[in-house]
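Table S2 (continued). Query chain:
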Amino acid sequence: MTKLHVKKGDEVVVIAGADRGKRGKVISVDTRDQRVIVEGVHMIKKHMRKNQEQPQGAIIEREGTVHISNVMEAGKFDGRATKRGKPAA
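Corresponding output:
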């Protein structure tokens, strides 16, 4: 098991990819695949089969995973912007 720079509950900013600039809280961390699930980031649609609760079936939107290298702790991100003399995003 490797030590990663973020853990569950941390506030992070996405620094690369389609969701660049979005902030959110880490919901879970997968150390084996080095991926994290961030609240409100990389939303995917999951098609649910008909069942007792949903007789028509449903399309549910939930968070997908983001690679750990594409996120940075919000504190470090804000500190970096201050150091460069630009306002934080």
